[in-house]
Q: What sequence folds into this?
């Protein structure tokens, strides 16, 4: 691509968060342990490239748990599932592994706790998003979904003194703050989390975009259309006055976006693989190369789901027992899970 772009400022952090890392590694283990097909309820994460990579090795993604054959292994996606989906999977499937992100689980617990106390709950989220569907299903009688742009005009609590507010973890910070401020004005006794329900990866990536917006002529955001946190990054950049465009890969770049742009900001949603980001840099080919724009370090780590850890540990013990006695100091299969990345996991199924 011929352009006037001099520099690319590459956001750090960007791309895979700890929840996505865990979910991708978990599904990789599933296809290692079980003969295909392995089933997954909903896309494991919202990224087209990742989904296709798993489909190539025998993963079948379904939108209804009844599509899973009796006795088949099934994984539940990182976005969290409704209670009836979980129970339906347990009744139908041979093995069920729930790869829900722990930060989504936290919101589910908040909803159940507040509903049990008799609160009417405002859930700030996007209608139809997998995470929103699963969370609302925890207490449908007590919860009202509010799109950020709607405001609270459609919310009517039975008791204005018993109102709670929770949020989808992938919202834009500005969107969440607007609804929170309105709710606090209307309901002085509002109950909400001491810290925002927005996940650390969402806020970190948005903070990086906010800083990039003041330095760049345009920002490109790598991620799939159905990725809520990716779309939030695009909106966040535009709210800060800088044009932004979502792309699945370098092939989606419209050269017109870069006309007159000397500095391009580049980031990726929390489920986008980093090789897609590198592809964008290669296509833009900035005259002065790229530099990192770092706002913070991320060291979060989520271990694999407990039942899957048990499967892997048992399988490792059987393999080792069948081959040779393992020296006491030799690490087990899961001992290096913290260092093993989702990028490496995806590479292992692609070869």
A:
């Amino acid at each position: 691509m011929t352009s006037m772009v001099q520099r690319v400022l590459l956001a750090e952090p960007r791309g895979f968060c700890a929840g996505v890392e865990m979910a991708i590694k978990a599904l990789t283990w599933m296809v290692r342990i079980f003969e295909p097909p392995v089933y997954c309820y909903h896309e494991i994460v919202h990224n087209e490239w990742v989904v296709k990579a798993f489909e190539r090795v025998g993963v079948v993604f379904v939108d209804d748990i009844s599509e899973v054959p009796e006795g088949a292994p099934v994984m539940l996606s990182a976005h969290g599932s409704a209670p009836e989906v979980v129970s339906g999977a347990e009744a139908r499937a041979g093995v069920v592994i729930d790869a829900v992100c722990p930060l989504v689980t936290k919101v589910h617990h908040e909803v159940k706790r507040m509903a049990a106390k008799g609160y009417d709950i405002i859930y700030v989220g996007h209608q139809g998003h997998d995470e929103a569907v699963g969370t609302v299903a925890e207490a449908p009688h007590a919860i009202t979904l509010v799109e950020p742009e709607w405001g609270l005009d459609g919310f009517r609590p039975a008791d204005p003194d018993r109102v709670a507010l929770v949020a989808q973890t992938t919202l834009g910070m500005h969107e969440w703050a607007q609804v929170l401020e309105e709710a606090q004005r209307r309901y002085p006794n509002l109950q909400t989390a001491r810290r925002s329900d927005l996940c650390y990866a969402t806020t970190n990536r948005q903070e990086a975009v906010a800083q990039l917006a003041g330095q760049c002529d345009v920002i490109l955001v790598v991620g799939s259309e159905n990725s809520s946190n990716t779309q939030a990054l695009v909106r966040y950049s535009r709210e800060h006055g800088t044009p932004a465009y979502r792309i699945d890969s370098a092939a989606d770049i419209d050269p017109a976006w870069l006309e007159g742009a000397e500095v391009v900001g580049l980031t990726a949603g929390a489920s986008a693989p980093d090789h897609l980001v590198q592809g964008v840099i290669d296509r833009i080919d900035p005259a002065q190369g790229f530099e990192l724009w770092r706002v913070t370090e991320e060291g979060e780590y989520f271990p694999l789901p407990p039942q899957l850890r048990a499967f892997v540990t048992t399988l490792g013990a059987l393999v080792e027992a069948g081959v040779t006695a393992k020296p006491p100091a030799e690490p087990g299969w899961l001992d290096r899970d913290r260092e093993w990345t989702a990028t490496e996991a995806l590479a292992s199924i692609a070869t």
Remarks:
- The chain is about 40% helix and 15% strand.
- The two ends are 30 Å apart (CA to CA).
- The chain has three domains: 7-16+200-294, 18-100+302-307+332-350, 103-192.
- The first strand starts at residue 7 and ends at 12.
